[in-house]
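Budget justification aside, the reviewers requested a transparent look at the raw inputs and outputs of the sequence design task funded under Objective 1. We therefore reproduce one unedited record. The lines immediately below are the structure tokens for a 479-residue chain.
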């Protein structure tokens, strides 16, 4: 940001990172959803969201995320050199209104005049300076007690977004308008009428508002929600660098969005028009629109070979993807799943995810790569009484001191240097060296170096589930 820092001094960014991103399956899954992926740039969507509202002009951000994603968030912030004000863990999802209430309650304790910039962590904004200019335009209205939502100036009759109709301009906040009404996702004819009128904007889900003003409207409109949010925060527990909300109290919160809970009922609502290169990246076709395609309109990622292919989004994370004679298609290849869809049916990917969930399949939740606070492991092969994984331990990473009742493990170092505990002995292993961990042996793997450690793990035994583990000591506070 340049030049206008003094205008932003009381703004506290709040990033909502609790989404599951089912419409970008099979890449986005509940265990590792789209906000943690680098889909639109070389940084993850969470990192991009945090970086565009960081620096001297803003206070450090608050992040609300799913409890199971806490170490992913912490690691991505570390990678991007971002310091968070707080990482708040939600043991269950309760939509945006309870999340905003908890953030506002925390902020008024820090700064009674806090202005809260509430933003999803999984959206794309291409024009950062335009975003900052829009924040400055909305700031006087927010400081005057208005609850300002960012309305995206539509460039097409999109049926996948909600719409906001503006009313009269606000006299003491130039560039902002009162809100006439909210409309849920319209049909194509209605969307075209909205765009043609010039009075409607896409609902971005981004808000700028005084924390105290928002709490005041919650007290009036949703007193039970606010009561539950206060309890969830009052009974929250600190866990390393995280704040875990109380689950019992949070369960009593209604699962409701800010729009339904407050914005559609309040007289304090305002909308500021924004042309900032925004997308909620709610489908694979949205990613196709964001990217610069080739002369035939194709967007490709990975090893892709095409013949007679037009206007398609083709992405492979594993092996060669070859297409012949297709048009307006989406093809996504991951280690364990392939998605083929017409581009205009991209919103229906969630129906496939629902089918998978109904049959208790693992593909909606986990990838073949699973992230842990110390690094990650990738499933390579599995068979009768054996399993092979590729393990990466981050610099300084340290697995728990543990033992297994039903499996043995054989570790082979590929690169880096491993410090291995085997009962009461410690040894150092370099590339091409290995060790064996028998059933029942107390052991630990750690990386004391400044470089990543890569190794192959071969598990063998009658049972190979992740729950066959007894943690004796863990620096990450896991049971």
């Amino acid at each position: 940001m340049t030049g206008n820092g003094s205008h932003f001094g009381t703004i506290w960014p709040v990033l909502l990172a609790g989404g599951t991103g089912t419409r970008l399956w099979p890449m986005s899954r509940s265990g590792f959803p789209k906000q943690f992926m680098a889909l639109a740039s070389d940084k993850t969507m969470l990192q991009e969201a945090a970086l565009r509202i960081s620096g001297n002009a803003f206070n450090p951000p608050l992040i609300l995320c799913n409890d199971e994603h806490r170490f992913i968030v912490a690691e991505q912030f570390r990678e991007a050199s971002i310091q968070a004000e707080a990482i708040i863990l939600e043991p269950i999802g309760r939509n945006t209104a309870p999340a905003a209430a908890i953030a506002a309650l925390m902020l008024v304790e820090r700064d009674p005049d806090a202005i809260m910039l509430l933003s999803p962590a999984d959206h794309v904004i291409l024009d950062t300076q335009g975003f900052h200019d829009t924040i400055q335009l909305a700031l006087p209205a927010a400081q005057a007690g208005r609850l300002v939502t960012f309305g995206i100036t539509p460039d097409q009759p999109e049926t996948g977004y909600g719409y906001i109709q503006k009313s009269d301009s606000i006299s003491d906040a130039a560039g902002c308008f009162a809100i006439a009404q909210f409309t849920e996702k319209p049909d194509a004819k209605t969307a075209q009428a909205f765009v043609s009128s010039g009075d409607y904007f896409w609902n971005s889900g981004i808000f700028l508002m005084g924390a105290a003003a928002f709490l005041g409207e919650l007290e009036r409109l949703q007193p039970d929600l606010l009561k539950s949010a206060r309890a969830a925060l009052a009974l929250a527990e600190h866990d390393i660098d995280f704040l875990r909300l109380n689950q019992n109290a949070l369960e009593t919160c209604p699962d409701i969005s800010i729009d339904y809970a407050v914005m559609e009922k309040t007289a304090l609502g305002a909308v500021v028009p924004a042309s900032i290169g925004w997308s909620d990246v709610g489908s694979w076709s949205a990613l196709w629109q964001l990217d610069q395609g080739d002369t035939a309109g194709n967007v490709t990622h990975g090893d892709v070979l095409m013949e007679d292919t037009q206007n398609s989004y083709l992405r492979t994370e594993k092996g060669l993807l070859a297409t012949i004679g297709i048009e307006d298609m989406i093809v996504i290849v991951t280690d364990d799943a392939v998605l083929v869809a017409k581009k205009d049916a991209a919103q229906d990917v969630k129906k496939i995810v629902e089918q998978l969930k109904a049959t208790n399949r693992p593909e909606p939740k986990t990838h073949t790569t699973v992230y842990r606070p110390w690094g990650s492991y990738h499933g390579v092969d599995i068979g009768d009484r054996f399993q092979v994984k590729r393990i990466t331990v981050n610099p300084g990473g340290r697995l728990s001191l543990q033992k297994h009742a039903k499996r043995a493990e054989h570790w082979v170092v590929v690169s880096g240097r491993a410090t291995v505990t085997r009962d009461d002995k410690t040894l150092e292993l370099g590339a091409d060296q290995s060790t064996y961990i028998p059933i029942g042996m107390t052991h630990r793997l750690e990386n004391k170096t400044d470089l990543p450690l890569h190794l192959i793990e071969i598990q063998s035994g009658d049972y190979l589930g992740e729950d066959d583990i007894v943690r004796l000591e863990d620096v990450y506070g896991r049971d």
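The chain has eleven helices and 30 strands. The radius of gyration is 24 Å. Computational costs for records of this kind are itemized in the attached budget.
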